[in-house]
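Ops channel
N.P.: pipeline sanity check, posting one input/output pair.
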């Protein structure tokens, strides 16, 4: 089969790989019909995530058709169209039983923190991902769900991570009626988080970024106010000024390890890798909210220390909530939002790229070229 293959930072290509096979009775093999490049894939592409091994296939957002199933699989059969959450989870361990599907203890040898994730380095289990013609799906009775007949394929693929994660970010923010919500980052997750904040009762939503085309998308897709941090000497002072000098009630960090806004932090975190990425967006969030506020962290950071202002967070009485999104828990409500027209994830898609051109897709997305917000990958397997 043809698959995207990692060859080192900024070096990927499409190669022939062996077809995945059933390795356990609970496995399924899925022929990928649509995949996506996620902003967190760029952390791998840029060499920020430890133990990203040469030969790995990325891609944790994908949908497809079941080709074959193991002898123990009961809920799927060949020919089923399925959407696959990015979490790999067993469904029965201590954490899965408590709904913490992103923290499954049985699918990752390094599961002291995160569980298994498709195509996201050996720190999350070493599973190959869906930027390929075929993918092995473990615990096929737990994760995959049939794509509803009424759902558009592009909505379905974005529900496997970006849409669910953005919605989860607003949920973790504990948004209440009338709250002022500030979202840092106008990528797909930030845009969905901003839109979701309205669904949860926000009275005002502000999106912070520095790219004009992404801020325009925030106004269009999320009906949010926007702030370009590059236009202000101190974006925190500006945010305080426009929120009655108190600060926001909720902040959602949807940027993570490669945040711009501080040259020193970006070089130390994203370039020299002296910390688990640049924490500038998270520090802005800590400074820009009122005392007693809630901060939700959706941005991905590496597992080594960060220069985060925890002392300020403690002294302000802030609540910080964070985790990888337990995708399947979000689906029942999100399906209704999509079906009723309250959310249309496919409106975020800007590029549709053949699998053979995936390297160009990564370059386009990484360099923020051609107004790229969300690129999809289209395999060609029959």
């Amino acid at each position: 089969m043809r698959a995207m293959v990692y060859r080192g930072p900024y070096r990927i290509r499409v190669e022939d790989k062996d077809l995945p096979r059933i390795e356990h009775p609970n496995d399924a093999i899925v022929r990928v019909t649509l995949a996506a490049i996620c902003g967190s894939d760029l952390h791998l592409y840029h060499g920020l995530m430890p133990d990203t091994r040469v030969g790995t296939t990325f891609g944790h957002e994908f949908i497809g058709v079941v080709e074959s199933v193991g002898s123990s699989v009961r809920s799927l059969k060949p020919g089923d169209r399925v959407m696959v959450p990015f979490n790999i989870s067993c469904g029965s361990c201590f954490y899965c039983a408590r709904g913490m599907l992103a923290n499954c203890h049985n699918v990752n040898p390094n599961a002291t923190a995160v569980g298994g994730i498709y195509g996201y380095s050996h720190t999350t289990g070493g599973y190959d991902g869906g930027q390929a013609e075929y993918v092995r799906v473990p615990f096929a009775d737990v994760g995959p769900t049939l794509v509803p007949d009424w759902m558009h394929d592009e909505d379905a693929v974005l529900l496997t991570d970006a849409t669910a994660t953005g919605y989860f970010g607003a949920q973790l923010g504990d948004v209440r009626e009338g709250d002022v919500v500030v979202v840092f980052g106008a990528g797909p997750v930030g845009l969905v988080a901003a839109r979701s904040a309205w669904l949860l009762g926000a009275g005002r939503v502000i999106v912070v970024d520095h790219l004009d085309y992404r801020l325009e998308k925030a106004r269009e897709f999320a009906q949010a106010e926007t702030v370009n941090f590059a236009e202000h000497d101190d974006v925190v002072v500006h945010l305080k000024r426009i929120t009655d000098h108190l600060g926001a009630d909720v902040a959602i960090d949807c940027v993570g390890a490669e945040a711009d806004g501080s040259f020193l932090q970006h070089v130390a975190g994203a370039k020299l890798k002296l910390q688990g990425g640049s924490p500038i967006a998270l520090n802005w969030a800590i400074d820009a909210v009122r005392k007693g506020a809630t901060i939700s962290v959706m941005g991905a950071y590496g597992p080594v220390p960060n220069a985060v202002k925890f002392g300020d967070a403690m002294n302000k009485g802030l609540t910080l909530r964070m985790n990888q999104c337990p995708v399947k828990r979000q689906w029942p409500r999100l399906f209704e939002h999509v079906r009723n027209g309250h959310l249309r994830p496919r409106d975020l898609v800007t590029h549709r790229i053949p699998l053979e051109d995936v390297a160009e897709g990564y370059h386009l997305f990484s360099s923020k070229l051609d107004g790229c917000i969300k690129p999809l990958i289209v395999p060609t397997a029959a």
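N.P.: looks fine end to end. The chain has two domains: 2-161+326-378, 163-322.
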